[in-house]
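Q: what sequence does this backbone want?
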C-alpha cells in the first residue's frame, strides 16, 4: 500500500514538471511542445536545473527518512545510532552502514545546492561549489566519527579533504 502511494505521488510530480517545464533546449533552439523557436535557451536550462535541484534535495530527504523507518528502526535499541549487531554484521559494521547511508543523503543535498546555484546564477559559482563540497565532507566526517566512535579511519580522510578545500580558498 505504501509503495503504491509513493508511485502515485511520483507520477503526479512528473506530470507537474511536464506541465511547467514545457520546453527542451537543443543546440540553441527551443523545442516547445512541437514548435521550434530560437528563443534564449537559458530559461529552459534554468527551469530544468531548478527542478533537478529540488528533486535531488527531495530524494536525499526521502532516502534518509525511509532508511531510518525501514532499515535502521529494526536495528536500533536505544538512541540515534544502533549499538547492536545483526547477524552477520557486528555492531561497528551497523554503525558505519548508518553513517554511510546518511552520507549519501548529504552528498545529494550538496549536489542540489550546486545545481541551484548554477541555475539561479547566484554569486561566484566556484566559491559556492567549493564551500558546498567542503561542508559535505566535514559533515561526512562528523557522521562517521560519531557513528563509529572514532574507530573507523574514514572520518580522518573526510576531515582532511574538507579542510584542504577550505585551506585552498585562502591562497
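A:
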Amino acid at each position: 500500500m505504501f509503495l503504491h502511494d509513493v508511485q502515485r505521488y511520483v507520477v503526479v510530480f512528473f506530470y507537474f514538471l511536464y506541465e511547467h517545464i514545457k520546453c527542451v533546449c537543443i543546440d540553441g533552439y527551443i523545442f516547445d511542445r512541437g514548435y521550434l523557436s530560437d528563443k534564449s535557451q537559458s530559461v529552459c536550462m534554468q527551469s530544468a536545473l531548478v527542478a533537478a535541484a529540488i528533486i535531488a534535495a527531495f530524494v536525499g530527504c526521502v532516502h534518509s527518512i525511509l532508511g531510518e523507518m525501514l532499515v535502521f528502526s529494526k536495528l536500533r535499541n536505544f538512541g540515534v545510532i544502533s549499538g547492536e549487531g545483526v547477524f552477520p554484521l557486528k555492531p561497528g559494521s551497523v554503525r558505519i552502514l548508518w553513517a554511510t547511508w546518511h552520507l549519501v543523503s548529504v552528498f545529494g543535498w550538496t549536489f542540489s545546492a550546486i545545481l541551484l546555484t548554477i541555475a539561479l546564477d547566484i554569486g561566484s559559482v566556484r566559491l559556492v561549489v567549493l564551500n558546498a563540497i567542503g561542508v559535505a565532507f566535514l559533515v561526512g566526517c562528523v557522521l562517521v566519527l560519531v557513528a563509529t566512535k572514532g574507530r573507523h579511519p574514514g572520518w580522518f580522510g573526510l576531515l582532511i579533504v574538507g579542510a584542504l578545500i577550505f585551506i585552498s580558498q585562502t591562497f
